[in-house]
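Researcher: Quick sanity check before group meeting.
Model: Go ahead. Protein one:
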Amino acid sequence: MNKKVAALLAALFLISNLVTYRVAGTDRRDQAPPAGLPVQGEVDREELAPLLEVLQILSERHLEDVSREDLLNAAIQGMVDKLGDPQTSFLDREHWEELMVRTTGAFSGIGVEITSSGNYITVSTPIRGTPGERAGILAGDRILKVDDQDLTGFSTMEAVKLIRGPEGTKVTLKIQRDGFAEPFTLEIVRSNIQMPSVFPKMLENGIGYLQLTTFAQQTGEDFATALLELENQGLKGLLLDLRDNPGGLLDQAVKVAQALLPAGPITHVVDRNDKIINTYKSYGVAKPYPIVLLVNGDTASAAEIIAGAFQDSGAGIIVGTKTYGKATVQHLEDLPGNSGLRYTVAKYITPAGRDIDEAGLTPNVTVELPELFFVGHHPLPTNLQPGDKGPQVLSLQKMLNNLGVKTEENNEFDAATERAVRAFQAERELSVTGRVDDETRKKLQAEMAKLLEKSDTQKQKAVEVLLEKIRSGRQ
């Protein structure tokens, strides 16, 4: 074996010993690594020899030139694919960095959510209280340039890399906005952005509503603050909305559960032999008010842990539809080159010992949502005009029909759709252009939001259950 192969062998052997459970982060469907997992045997150098020989042969002698990095990444991807586990994956530099953002819920940038539509990067939502919002960026704005870089044809990921940057640094955006004859520029100072995940509201009759969209690093603390504020307003019953919550950090889900559940287990973590290796517990007392949880088919992972604990303990009623059924525990491992590995290390079960992986949780009260609800949850991130085609146009057509302005649903912004848009604009005293501009898009989405609130049959049933419990004095 020559020196080059020996050097690669030593490097790979070093990599093989990096599995030390150092990273406590997870992505949308992941949990933090549990304690007490067994360490597998070390990889023998001779076992890697064939891999390194093939690496050298292909990189130096194959007819088509290929880099060692590409070959190594392909080898790693092959190992991952062999497992047949959708929750285990190798992440290259870009996807690893984005995963870290989603895990922490924080990044340094200007605070806008963007989408790629056609050849343009378009702002879908400016995040409240961020430099982007304060600078006046609006939903629907097209970002033409970042500093001197033209974004035409860029992907969302490529644009994100340019817009984000170290806290305190400046970035200049060239913006095209409907209604403005010429593009304009904004110079914005980047800052640390914290994505909110807890959304509280006091409803009528003393019912507190808390929506949790994910479990990021601040979720537990933010939840405790929001719950205390609701309790100080005379909370009589709590509605915890976990719909569309894909999971996140296990320790944050445990903090939420500990704030609400009476003393007892929250979840058990089991190894490949179904042996319990860790149990997370609550040490609290039962709340003096009833609790109802809302779940659906996209309630997953850490959110299912909370719902399962409430269901098994009888501390709350679950309303909605069957949950996703993701009960495996993933760990994230840093790899050289700013890449990473997400891999399954264990499984969790409910306090009563139920394995819900791929099965999900069945609510105590099953309630489906009308189709209208799904239409309203596909907002229009960009402006539309005659001649456009695709799913956004179909969403527009469905919105118009649900708002009483009838048109054919065919994915095409045709003459009939243009007439419907004109009718909508005229009835709402908007500028009648036949195009979905910023003003029209905002009006559409505002009216759909009101319609959705009236059509949320799951939330209505949850409130009904809470009111019945409040009136009866039962928890």
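Researcher: Fine. The other one?
Model: Protein two, sequence then structure:
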Amino acid sequence: MKNNFPGMFNELYNGNFQIESKNQSNFPDAWLQIGGNHQTSWNFINAPLEKPVLEIKNTTALRAGIVQTYEASLDVRKDEDWQILMFFKSGMPELQAYLRIYPIRSNGDVSKPWEYSFTPGLKQEQFKQVISVCSEIKFLRLETGVLGLGDLYIYKLIAYSLTPNRMKRRVKKAKKEIQAINHIQTIGEIIKPIHLAMPIPLKIPVTVQANVNADIRDLTPTRDRVQIFGSSQAPFATSVSGRAQVEISGHEFHESIEDVTANQTMSATTTRDVSALLRFSFVVYNFGAVSARVQAELSPNGVHWTAAGEQQEVGPEELVIVSPVSFLRYTRISYKSDDLTTLRIWVQAQS
């Protein structure tokens, strides 16, 4: 279905959220919820005489958004260059929105997604992203949402191909040609002295003499003191003799559990910030009857990812430990299977 947009067509089905889903109550057709947790809310506002908008309120999870259904993926078989337009509004300053694009090949294989991030303002803004696809890619599946805490309002997504006719730009011709200099009338016109409107300041050395009185003495803890503040604006406690009082606490244990369903599409768990943890490990248990493949991934910003270590196979009813050796701020587990199987993924850590 194509919706008119000034000068172009929208190739995304229901990219403006005009059609409500028959299978999901109060949600746009051809879109699904992704990421978040039980505290995240998706509110679809489709009131009469108002433009539809999808509001995502994310309170705890790092990533929460919407993703196209597989059947509604963008068909890119005819053109290589595409323009993606997104209309966002943020509910708070410095909020980060993201766009994730899953390339789908002709045999159905899905490559790792392309990821982009944006910073929408408190008023509705338009964001553009130009992408190029190779001939092996047949479809693109789009996902968008919010990274981290905050409220994001999604008004519309538009995708159209950048065909040669649409990429043409008008070039204005110069009104007059630049005339060459034929001759100079007199040399005298060049060597005339230039009269300055303002006087030229002169650098004149100046000697200054002054008397400075300073009290230089030894510092003592009874008469002199220095207060050091941390980020919480609370000073360090000290004893009567001026020595710092330090409170030593033991290690804390952290654990989270996530159940996922693995299939032929490479997917990933919820992103976690591990910057405050001393050490952590993933544990994956396979409830199904077919094997799955898992791999740890690391990221410095929650948007761009790299594999950490080798891909591991998890057999039926098998428990596998995945412990990244390298450190970056964000981590997650990517998983895939040749058939449907259920995985339970623990994250256990000490701080």
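Researcher: One line on it for the slide.
Model: The chain has one helix and 22 strands.
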